[in-house]
Amino acid sequence: MICFDLFIGFLKVGLFAFGGAYGAIPLIRDVVLSYGWIGEDTLTALIAVSESTPGPIMVNLATYLGSLQAGFPGALIATAAVVLPSFIIVLVIMVLLKKLLKHPYVQAVLRGLKPCIIGIILATGLFMILRHCFVSVRDLSADTTAILMTAGLSAVYFGSGKVLKKKLSPIGLIGISAAAGVIVYGLV
User: Fold this and answer.
1) Would you say residue 113 lies in a domain?
2) Fewer CB near the terminus (10 Å): N or C of the chain?
C-alpha cells in the first residue's frame, strides 16, 4: 500500500509542479504532510540535503522520501512517478515543438506563467527563511547567527558581481555556505 501511495503522491507532484524544483516545494510539502510520511522539520532537512546533492531537487526529494518509506523499491517508485509526467510531456512536445511554440496562444500562456512561478519561488524562500531559519518556534526568539549568515552570504553573492566582474555560481555559493555553516555551527 505504501508503494502505491508513493506512486500516486509523487505522480501528483510530477504532474502539477511548474516552475522547477523550488516551485514544487510547496506541493511536495502538501503531499508529504497529507500522507504523514515525515514531519515538517525532517522535510526541511531533506530539502536542504536535496539542494546540496547533485541532481534535480524534486527527484532527490522523491528518492530520499521513497527510500525512507519503503527502502530501495520505494525510492525507485517515487523517483519514477515524479519524472514520468515530464518524460511523457517532453516526448509529446518534441513531436509538436516546431508548430506549438510559434502559436500565439502558447506564447501568451508561457508569458502568463512566468510571474506565477516567480511568486511561488519567492514565497517558498521567504517561508523557509522565516519559519526555519530566523525564528525559533519554541520561544519565538530570533536567531541572530542565522540572520547574520544570510546577510553575509547575500552580500557575497551580490557583491561578487562587482568585484569579480561576474556573478558567483550557485555551486560556489553552496560551497561557501557549507564552509560557513561548519565554521559557525561546528561539526556535530
Assistant:
1) no
2) C
> Which grid coordinates belong to 19?
516552475
Range of the domain at 34: 2-103
Closest CA to 22 of 170, 134, 151, 153: 170
Q: What is the pLDDT of residue 122?
A: 82
Contacts with 93 (C-beta within 8 Å, 6 or more apart), sequence order = 100
Q: How many domains, in total, are found in the chain? A: 1
pLDDT tens sequence across 132-144: 655 555 555 666 7
Comparing 99 with 142, which gets the higher pLDDT?
A: 99
- The whole-angstrom separation of Cα 6 and Cα 13 is 11
Conformational region of residue 125, where left means phi above 0, alpha means psi within -120 to 50, and beta covers everything else: alpha
Give a yes or no: residue 127 inside a domain. Answer: no
Decide if 85 contacts 48 (C-beta within 8 A): no
Residues 37, 70: Cα–Cα separation, whole Å? 11
Angle at 27 between CA 122 and CA 92, to 5 degrees: 100
- How far is it, in rounded angstroms, from Cα 79 to Cα 11? 9
Running DSSP on this structure, what letter comes out for residue 186?
A: -
